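lol ok so funny story. i was supposed to be doing the assay writeup but got distracted and ended up predicting the structure for this chain instead. priorities right. anyway since i did it might as well share w the group, maybe its usefull for someone
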Amino acid sequence: MHSIVGHPRARLRPTLALGAGMALLALAACELPKAPEWDVGIVAPFSSDPIGIADFLPGVVQIDSAGEPWVFTIDRQSSSQAFSYGDLCSPFCAGLIGLPVPGFAHADSFEVAFSDTDLVSVEGLSATMTMQFTNGLGFEPLRSNVDTTGYIAIAIRDLGTGATLDSLFLSADSKSLGSQSDTVFSFSAAHVTDGVKILFWVVSPYDGQTISVDTATANVTLSAALDGIEVAAATVIVDNMSMDTSFVADIDQNTRDQIMNRVISGAYELMLVHNLELEGSLAISIAGSQADLFSGDPLAEVRLIDLVFTSDLEQPGVLTAQELELIAGFPDIYIGYSGVASGSGPGNQSRFAPDQTLEAQLKVTAQIRIGEQ
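and the output, tada:
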């Protein structure tokens, strides 16, 4: 993963929780006069660094930020299937041993489906597909000394919509399968849903060849692999994904003392700004140790609850003087969050582009007593 955030299945990163610690830091760093004494409401706005979207993606998808514009890269996708000679030329070649090879025509298909079912579709796909024919028939099905009318026709289609992505005609005049033959296709700016379907038609002419063949084991194996896959956008399934992470905030002792001695009440307001197709709930926990995060112990943690993923929604809450003093008194200040997110589209689908981010904006308002204590 190249990226903006770390682990494939975690959600929201420490940047969101970092806002709470930094807001408190900004608040307490104000220069406070000694006298006279009066109460003042101080607003400390905080706008987080962008939170990346990499962790909302399936494991086969990563963000490549090396060039411009950024792209998603997808792991190699491959499939293969063997077609027996008995199936290819049935019923004409049943029990064929030491007799002239009959001519035959056969149409079939196989699929290279996305290996992760959470990856629904991709847009602007650029990739190379190598298709390999391994000929285990014991003879050349396309070419002979007397007839070169054999051919293989190939069509590559979008598995979801059936749209043709590419096609190729391999004639015996210009192509011999031999024991193995590779054919390379290149895709650019394609839209693919679920994967690709490869259809082929093979025509093998009658030419009087005499062979000994086991029609049950002789076969042609077709293999296909999509590689070097880059896409401009991806639609994926995000279905009740759990989000949990934590980190340690660094707040100096002077800041802690000012919070403990002067703050009498407080409030916070969280706003998420994004254009992601996500919905869900989350909570933030501020505690003195990793074990105390989301512990439910009011003497060991301060929890911010009832937060949601809705964009541009002001989400307010109250921080008491006791909660702010508790935070300031922790030997180490751990900040964590936990939540659940799902795609807001049909079937919990969500469309992502590599440059999309989630901006978390946290504002803390503290009522502070200024003057002689």
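The chain is about 10% helix and 50% strand. The helical segments are 14-28, 85-89, 253-262, 321-329.
back to the writeup now i swear
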